[in-house]
Every structure is written in C-alpha cells, then in structure tokens.
Amino acid sequence: MKLKHIAFLSLILCLYGCKTVEVKAEQLATIRDGANVAGFQTCGWVIQFDNEFSSIVVPVDLDPAFQQDGLKVEVILTNSTQLATCRRDSPPMVEVVFIREIESN
C-alpha cells in the first residue's frame, strides 16, 4: 500500500514541479541579417515577427537553409535559457521548434 502512495505522491510532485516548455503558436516572420538591423548588428541572424509590434528575437541556432536576408517564414519558437549576449540588455534567445518558408505569390 505504501508503494501506491509514494508513486501517486511522486506523480503529483512531478506535475507541479517539473519544468514546462512554453511553446508559442505558429507566427509569420522575416529572417533578417542582424548586421542590417539597428541594435542587432553583432547578433548574426535574427527573426522579426510580421505583426504590429515587429518584435525581433535572436535564435540559438538557425538552420543554414533559412539564413537568407528577407526570407518570409512561418515559425514556432520556444524560450531558451541562453541569453543574447550580443545585446546590451541580454534578452533570452529562442529555440526554433518549427520553421518553413512561405510560398511567395
């Protein structure tokens, strides 16, 4: 009987204590060469969201196939524990979970 209680308690603790990964919804974005983006000149490749905020994030690693300035993509990103040391404010970098090029019309 004690084994059941321990297993149940372990499950409850894991559900509340295990780290969850925040995955954002698929978003439209543009790949940019950071050398051409104010404040991101030393960041390498960055991702700029195609929304009203035009937020820019620094990916941990961007597949070389997508390293094209001005490339329109759909992406799903998640937060990373690494900081973008290329910026003075050192925002968190992002992990690319999914990326695909958008067909140009």
Question: What is the topological layout?
Answer:
Elements: H1 2-17, E1 27-33, E2 45-49, E3 56-57, E4 72-83, E5 92-101
Antiparallel strand pairs: 1-2, 1-4, 2-3, 4-5
Termini separation comes to 65 Å
Query: What is the CATH T-level topology?
Result: OB fold (Dihydrolipoamide Acetyltransferase, E2P)
- Structural class of the helices, strands and pairings? alpha+beta
The CATH class: Mainly Beta
Described by strand count, sense and barrel closure, the largest sheet is: 5 strands, antiparallel
Q: Tally the structural domains.
A: 1
Summarize model confidence as the mean pLDDT: 83
Say what oligomer this is: single chain
| Percentage of residues in strands | 25-35%
In the sheet with the most strands, the strands line up as: 3-2-1-4-5
Proper CATH architecture: Beta Barrel
Question: Count of DSSP helices?
Answer: 1
Rg, Å, rounded: 19 Å
What is the 3D shape? Answer: globular
The number of E-state strands comes to 5
Secondary-structure element string: HEEEEE
- The portion of residues assigned to helices is 10-25%
User: Poorly predicted ranges (pLDDT <50, ≥5 residues)?
Assistant: 11-21
Written account of the structure:
The chain is of the alpha+beta class. It has a single domain, classed as OB fold (Dihydrolipoamide Acetyltransferase, E2P), CATH 2.40.50. The chain is 15% helix and 34% strand. The protein has one helix and five strands, in the order αβββββ. It has one helix at 2-17; strands at 27-33, 45-49, 56-57, 72-83, 92-101. The chain has a five-stranded antiparallel β-sheet, with no helix packed on it. The N and C termini lie far apart (65 Å).
